[in-house]
Amino acid sequence: MTTEKRRAPAGAAVLRGEITTAIRGAVMQELAAVGYGRLSIEAVARRAGVSKTAIYRRWRSKLELVLEIVASVAGRSLPLPDTGDLRGDLEMLFLIMSRALRHPLAAQIIPDLLAEAARNPRIAQTLEEALRANQRDVGGQLIGRAIERGQLSPDTDLDLAVDLIVGPLYWRLTVSRAPLSAADLPRLAAAVATALEVACQPAVRTEPDVHLSPITAVIDPIGS
């Protein structure tokens, strides 16, 4: 009985992993250097040391190329050690996030893609879905631990909690681009922890006071 050796597929059937990795890295470098608007398949190919054909075998267009790679990076899970305390977990998360957001590539790419998202619905949708999924994953871990410890209510609104966790740091580093030192992180963690504790408490409804005060009656000509 004889066995026939099968030949490995060649040509378009082979998508070598090292080439794909080189292309991904080149896309991120080009996005940081020139932005999405000026990025071209030719420039990515040159930077990656591959042919344009190698790129088009994997992605049909510049948009699909960028969306797939950016979504994979934005949706990447962050390691989040359990410190045993809500404030400690927040401080650790802020340290990890601040390092990621201040990375030279991220500092160039994120503002450009946000501006592009305002003009391109597909980029906007991809970024929103990837970032929200990632944030809910991280927030779910952090909030879940706090609930198990009894630090937060089981009724905590996860979406609201995620906004309170991510918003301040993201605004500081990405929007206002204000400096943030390591000494600021414990204070930020304490402030966010307090905000979470308040936010998860049941809302207290009060009846609006419909009686005008004397000062209001004088100032408001309609009420006179």
UniProtKB/TrEMBL annotation:
Keywords: DNA-binding, Transcription, Transcription regulation. Residues 40-59 bind DNA. InterPro entries: DNA-bd_HTH_TetR-type_CS, Homeodomain-like_sf, HTH-type_TetR-like_transc_reg, HTH_TetR, Tet_transcr_reg_TetR-rel_C_sf, TetR_C. SUPFAM superfamilies: Homeodomain-like, Tetracyclin repressor-like, C-terminal domain. The keyword DNA-binding applies. Residues 17-77 form the HTH tetR-type domain. GO terms for molecular function: DNA-binding transcription factor activity; transcription cis-regulatory region binding. This is Transcriptional regulator, TetR family. It comes from Micromonospora eburnea.
